[in-house]
Amino acid sequence: MNFRKQTLANGLRLITVPIAGSLTTTVLVLVEAGSEYETKEINGLSHFLEHMCFKGTKTRPSSQNISKELDTLGAHYNAFTSDEMTGYYATIAKENTDKAIEIISDIYLNSLLKEEDIDKERGPIIEEINMREDDPGSKVWELWPELLYGDQPAGWKITGSKESVKMLKREDFLRYFNKRYIAENTVVVIAGDIDEVKVTETVNKFWEKVQRGMRTQKPKTIESQSEPRILLKYKQLDQTHLKLGVRAYTITDPRRFPAGIIMNILGGKMSSRLWLRIREEMGVAYYVHSDYDFDIDHGYIAIAAGVSNEKLEAVVKVILEEFKRLKTEKLTDKELEEAKSNMIGRLAISIETPEDWADFYGNQEIMTGSIMSPEERMAKIRKVTVEDIQTVANDLFKDEKLNLVLIGPHKDQEPLKTLLKLG
């Protein structure tokens, strides 16, 4: 799929993705404003600000004004916050493309951030935090970066804590908004059956008054580990939720391609090694899957599972056995080609809609400032060899990179510590 990337006169980056015959258009706005751009005192502000941008603007003074207008147009719309970015989007019938651009720009540029709305929204956000606390599957995901990165932005919760959310003041929102929500930090993506010249004119019109400023980088994440680590959270549950993995690579490191294939082989599909061993053969888990994340300056690969409490140690042993196997035994060409085929097929499936394409191009631009086409990514996957897999496995699967997070009715770490050895 062809795309056009340009930097407008006001400093805004615009990516247009023409998709002939599409009945819908997606308007996606991404900004370099996530939890890794925060200080400890304002942890959770990026996420809180995302909520506030739907609470009213100068021309749409309430959340109901915004939602009613988008709902009347049949739009699919939402927002999200991660450690690296915040995003706002709407997918809409193509004849309403200009309207979607106008509404999303209004939400982004002109939010009122009223003190009474901030105070009211603390409640839902604290309940969101409570919800995650009560869901062990979600909580494992929050504890994982805490174990890897500790007390630095990469280790903090995206939502912040209940304490930090309660302390945020309107002045914090305004200061952060003026620093982060500037043209230089922002990417607008329009994907659909569009007239690129007309769309560019429309974006220029509605984004004319976007703030300018100095683009600043987030604090560099410090990677430091010399031995296996465990983070155990005691909770009386009927099963144990765990995440076991290692520190890995950044989003620009070419070794992420063999690392991704390793994760596919271990837990990326229903015929993967660990799915077959833990679910099908042992029968002690409902979910077993791989998880990996390659960020700007850090990354990891891991296996996540919910397992029988009594079989926790047995499952940890099996996962470690498969880590070791990839170090000591070469893959067969057949297993490697099956993994490549699966990943290429899933990549193709993941870029079917305008929303998919906007996300595909926008995320790359906001993370790296450069874009790799699907065909280029597929070529990188195809190029990986059996030798590459073994080399990367030997680099990744080391004792001093091992990390284990678990939630369940366990209080003693010692039995698990003795297991965390790869040799």
UniProtKB/TrEMBL annotation:
<dbReference type="InterPro" id="IPR011765">
    <property type="entry name" value="Pept_M16_N"/>
</dbReference>
<dbReference type="InterPro" id="IPR050361">
    <property type="entry name" value="MPP/UQCRC_Complex"/>
</dbReference>
<dbReference type="InterPro" id="IPR001431">
    <property type="entry name" value="Pept_M16_Zn_BS"/>
</dbReference>
<feature type="domain" description="Peptidase M16 C-terminal">
    <location>
        <begin position="169"/>
        <end position="342"/>
    </location>
</feature>
<dbReference type="GO" id="GO:0006508">
    <property type="term" value="P:proteolysis"/>
</dbReference>
<dbReference type="GO" id="GO:0046872">
    <property type="term" value="F:metal ion binding"/>
</dbReference>
<dbReference type="InterPro" id="IPR007863">
    <property type="entry name" value="Peptidase_M16_C"/>
</dbReference>
<dbReference type="Pfam" id="PF05193">
    <property type="entry name" value="Peptidase_M16_C"/>
</dbReference>
<dbReference type="InterPro" id="IPR011249">
    <property type="entry name" value="Metalloenz_LuxS/M16"/>
</dbReference>
<comment type="similarity">
    <text>Belongs to the peptidase M16 family.</text>
</comment>
<protein>
    <recommendedName>
        <fullName>Peptidase M16</fullName>
    </recommendedName>
</protein>
<dbReference type="Pfam" id="PF00675">
    <property type="entry name" value="Peptidase_M16"/>
</dbReference>
<feature type="domain" description="Peptidase M16 N-terminal">
    <location>
        <begin position="24"/>
        <end position="154"/>
    </location>
</feature>
<dbReference type="GO" id="GO:0004222">
    <property type="term" value="F:metalloendopeptidase activity"/>
</dbReference>
